[in-house]
Amino acid sequence: MKHGIFSTLVLALAVSACASGGAFAEPRQLAASPITGVSTGTNFSFDLGIVVGNRYYLSDKSNAAIDVFDTATSVQVGQIKGSGPNAFAGNVKTNGKADIPRSGPNGINAVGSLLYVGDVNSVKIIDPAAKKIIKTIVVGASGTRADEGCVDAVHGLYMISSPEADTPFATVINTATQAVVAQVTFTDSKGKPSGGLEQCRYDPGSDTFYVNNDGTTDNPHGELVAMPGASIRSITPGATVNYTTLAGMREFGLGDCDPTGLALGPNTDVAVGCRPETAGAPLLVLIMNRTTGNIVASVNAGGGDQIEYDVSTNRYYSAASRWNASGKANDHGACSAASPCTPVLAIIDAGTRTLVTQLPSGNNAHSVSVDAVTGKVFMPASSGVSPPGCSTCSNEPARLLTFAAK
User: Fold this and answer.
1) Is the distance from CB of 139 to CB of 160 less than 8 angstroms?
2) Which pLDDT does position 373 carry in this prediction?
3) Are 67 and 57 in contact (CB under 8 A)?
């Protein structure tokens, strides 16, 4: 928020929540918490977060750490860093500009009692109880990040994508042995490498890995790829195969989407976040039937990165950092002083597949996590002035925003 009454408003909201016995009447912002090691005016570089138990964990490139927050208070209680080969890459810069493909930490997933975190050429394994990085698994040598992952807890597999490699690929790790068992490359049927890979999810109901593919010859602005788990498990240990050779693989075109976030909803629904690079394209969240690939709803609430589904509220929560009042993409889909954005937390009813509300968030607030126990939503945000291009921001410091989920 850019208003000077910010602190008073947060206090009033907290008092209101307490007065009602902790039950929130409607979605709203509750708090804005400082983040260690990030000063006012800093372009805070972060990626994804996750709630596990009573802790929220955030991938923090600026501090080369995993930031740890208490979910009850939203107060930061620690940072987890490594050293030597277990150190995160941090916020790498090339020619004075952030080099995101060569930075880390990135995506973060809970695997049993551990956390798996993507980093450059590797996956770091964290023991959150010990607050320590206990292992580094090498997944490549391209000098680029392992980005977003997903977990098949039924069969003990973890899949993570390396989207900026010359030929993007996904690495499959056995979570019992913590060893790489296979890799899947992404070159389409016409011989063109994928434009990149985004969020993936595993559906235990259908035994399927889903991943957003940034672009192919047939679908240059993205497609949703469905890969049967049985086909992944049938890969010869240690082998590398291309996704087009996987038995039962399906591709669903997404139109002018340029997909980012992905969340499995109720029944056969799946939500795909679109962040189109085509100026004037509508900013959409597509609700699809993940069995047939049919689009069953197009909600004008896109322009984000991460999307989460919360079963307790039956709602999707989208970190729409590149939303703007027109509901259409800026030039190249980016935010700038000339083409500013108005970042929001978009909340979508998964039952009716319609927009519930959009709440102002913060600069570059592209990551979102939901805690079903406390009924809170966590979104990190950069400082109001860096990166440039937020028309609803002033000079707020980087911070963790907390919202009521309902």
Assistant:
1) yes
2) 93
3) yes
26 pLDDT band (50/70/90 cuts)?
confident
- Tokens encoding 29: 């912002």
Are the beta carbons of 282 and 326 closer than 8 angstroms?
A: no
> Radius of gyration of the chain from Cα atoms?
20
The b-or-e profile of 42-73 (16+ CB within 10 A means b, else e) is: bbbbbbbbbbbeebbbbbbbbbbbbbbbebee
Contacts of 18 (CB under 8 A, 6+ apart): none
What pTM was computed for the model?
Answer: 0.93
- Cite the DSSP H helix spans in 34-168: none
What residue type is 252 in one-letter code?
A: F
3-state secondary structure of 171: strand
Q: Which of 333, 330, 357, 351 is nearest to 287 (CA)?
A: 351
Instruction: Say how far apart CA 31 and CA 346 lie, in whole Å.
Output: 18
**Strand order in 285-289's β-sheet?**
259-264, 269-274, 285-289, 295-299
- DSSP one-letter string for 110-138: EETTEEEEEEBTEEEEEETTTTEEEEEEE
Residues 366-390 have a mean pLDDT of: 96
